[in-house]
Amino acid sequence: MDSDPRVFFAAERTLLAWVRSGITVMALGFVVAKFGLFLRLLSSASIAANTSHHNNELSNIFGIALVIISVAITIGAQLNHQPISKRFRLMMYQSWQ
Questions:
Q1: Distance between CA atoms of 14 and 20, rounded to whole angstroms?
Q2: Exposed, middle or buried by CB within 10 Å (0-12, 13-18, 19+), for 33?
Q3: CA-to-CA distance for 21 and 2, rounded, in angstroms?
Q4: What is the pLDDT of residues 35-80, one digit of tens each?
Q5: Per the structure, how many domains does the chain have?
Q6: What is the phi/psi pair of residue 3, to 5°?
Q7: Which residues lie below 8 Å from residue 70, measured CB to CB, with a gap of 6+?
Q8: What's the domain range around 74?
């Protein structure tokens, strides 16, 4: 690994991109879960609610799964970035001596 700071900055940008992707997936999970709630409220307000029953548990499960996946993405990004950052700091320390 090169002690060039551009390598470290590229690793930082990669970490930030993965964190941004994790946040986006988490937001999508919240939207999916809330959309199921919206459908439930919409069906209860309609006249046809007495004749049909909509099960919105699937959207809740899918939304929670997306939130869990986003947490895994963020943790994976951090675990991937830690050794790179540690090696770079060690090389920078050795170059100062």
A1: 10
A2: buried
A3: 27
A4: 887 777 777 766 554 555 556 788 889 999 999 999 999 999 999 9
A5: 1
A6: -90, 15
A7: 22, 23, 24, 25, 26, 29
A8: 5-96
